[in-house]
């Protein structure tokens, strides 16, 4: 699948949904960068930008200890 023109958060969503499990934020972001195959000027800037996008997107939930999961995995009680 070509992720070049997809938004970073959509790529992150795809990665987590394919994995079906929580993922450490830095591993998730590095996979997003790899799948986007886009040159970056500063790795630390790219990581913080993608982290912010994921943090602001309601499809994602912080699971603690730097782990992220999809909101749809959380059961409603």
UniProtKB/TrEMBL annotation:
Record-linked InterPro entries: Asxl_HARE-HTH (IPR007759), RNAP_delta_N_dom_sf (IPR038087), RpoE (IPR029757)
Q: Superkingdom of the source?
A: Bacteria
Gene Ontology cellular component? DNA-directed RNA polymerase complex
Entry's Gene Ontology BP terms: DNA-templated transcription; regulation of DNA-templated transcription
What does the UniProt keyword field contain? Answer: DNA-directed RNA polymerase, Nucleotidyltransferase, Transcription, Transferase
| Family statement drawn from the similarity comment of this UniProt entry | Belongs to the RpoE family.
Name of the protein this chain belongs to: RNAP delta factor
Q: Which organism is it from?
A: Pectinatus brassicae
